[in-house]
Design brief:
MscS_channel_2nd; alpha+beta; about 15% strand; disordered C terminus; elongated; LSM_dom_sf
Length: about 375
């Protein structure tokens, strides 16, 4: 009877004690979160309740397993498994606690500077994200190494591995040259302030917003909801446009190809009226000028301003659409047309400068959709 009750008491007591301590800790964190709304730390710490309870249970079982006298033939294997669970759950808990502390610090910083310096906030967010990835990687490597060292065979092979570490390091460095270059490029992006999470960029002709930055790759979300994943080394070796550098304000252009008779002055007034009714225009400046001419048309350019890249797109398409509609309704002659004319033959094949037709009447030249007799 004692041999049956002892394992139940030890194992069941460890599980029950783990659940009680875990519930009590979560209750205290929840109460602290309700009292301190100014900081999200206590709420974020609650994310670690699963690895916390797993750590408690593994520690209690590992410490009391000898007293349970359960499966004596498998004693070493079970003890080894509990040790591995203990190390893994401890690493998991450390990552969760570090993440909660870092995210709390960033949230306080962002709330204090979000309106005064949004570019700086995006830069800190990028750095914090990459730092947390590095911390997670380091903790994971240390935990994995600790797990391996619990096996006697790996401890015995440690000396030979250290002796060949130099050669292995060289081979690994050559084999992982691309990966290492991307990792160093990730640090350069994070602390060099080249590109940040939330920046509007143009890469290979694609316009989008930086959505994620890791140590090896960067994800850009385009305007049509596509995701472009690129190695971070691209941004340190090739040119790209970053529309969020400095102030987010932007100036955009709209072009029209019109007839030479287009009413430019009236178009300036219409541009002003369109912008006054466009909420995306920031009211800083606008202009309309003739920038080029060809034998058939002239090029008219409008300059408009907006507070960011999204609004400048809205202003441009609004101005383009409404101006073309206004010209088609009020000044249709200003729209470009195709000029056509009959070919002029050499004087030897013409009569008094005219090319006779079959009925003896000179051919006429077609101009802007109408006919005009040749002189």
């Amino acid at each position: 009877m004692e041999n049956l009750l002892r394992p139940l008491i030890v194992v069941g007591g460890s599980v029950v004690l783990t659940l009680v301590i875990g519930w009590a800790t979560d209750f205290l964190l929840r109460k602290a979160d309700e009292r301190h709304h100014e900081t999200p730390l206590w709420g974020l710490l609650r994310r670690g309740r699963i690895p916390y309870q797993l750590l408690l249970c593994a520690a209690l079982l590992r410490g009391s397993y000898d007293e349970a006298q359960l499966l004596e033939s498998r004693r070493e294997g079970i003890g080894q498994a509990l040790t591995l669970v203990l190390i893994g759950s401890a690493a998991w808990l450390v990552i969760r606690i570090a993440s909660a502390i870092v995210e709390t610090s960033y949230t306080r910083y962002a709330n204090a500077r979000a309106h005064r310096d949004p570019a700086r906030v995006r830069r800190v967010r990028t750095q914090v994200t990459l730092i947390m990835r590095v911390v997670s990687a380091i903790v994971g490597v240390v935990a994995a190494a600790s797990m391996l060292l619990t096996f006697p065979a790996f401890r015995a092979a440690g000396a030979s591995l250290l002796a060949s570490a130099g050669i292995l390091g060289i081979v690994a460095g050559v084999a992982a040259q691309s990966t290492l270059s991307n990792m160093f490029a990730g640090f350069q992006i994070a602390f060099g302030d080249m590109v940040r999470i939330g920046d509007t960029v143009v890469v290979d002709g694609e316009w989008g917003t930086v959505e994620e930055i890791t140590l090896t790759f960067l994800t850009v979300r385009t305007w049509d909801e596509r995701r472009i994943t690129m190695p971070v080394s691209y941004f340190t070796s090739k040119p790209f446009e970053n529309w969020s550098r400095g102030t987010p304000q932007m100036t955009g252009t709209v072009f029209w190809h019109l007839d030479h008779t287009a009413p430019v002055d009236a178009m300036r007034e219409k541009l002003r009226d369109i912008l006054r009714q466009c909420p995306a225009w920031d009211g800083r400046a606008y202009d309309l000028s003739v920038t080029d001419t060809t034998p058939n048309t002239m090029q008219v350019r409008a300059l408009v301003t907006a507070k960011d890249a999204d609004d400048i797109w809205t202003v441009r398409v609004t101005v383009r659409e409404q101006m073309v509609g206004w010209l088609a309704d009020e000044h249709p002659y200003a729209l470009p047309r195709v000029n056509t004319a009959d070919a002029i033959l050499p004087p030897s094949q013409s009569q008094n400068g005219h090319r006779p037709s079959q009925d003896g009447v000179p051919h006429q030249r077609r101009f802007h959709g109408s006919t005009r007799p040749e002189r």
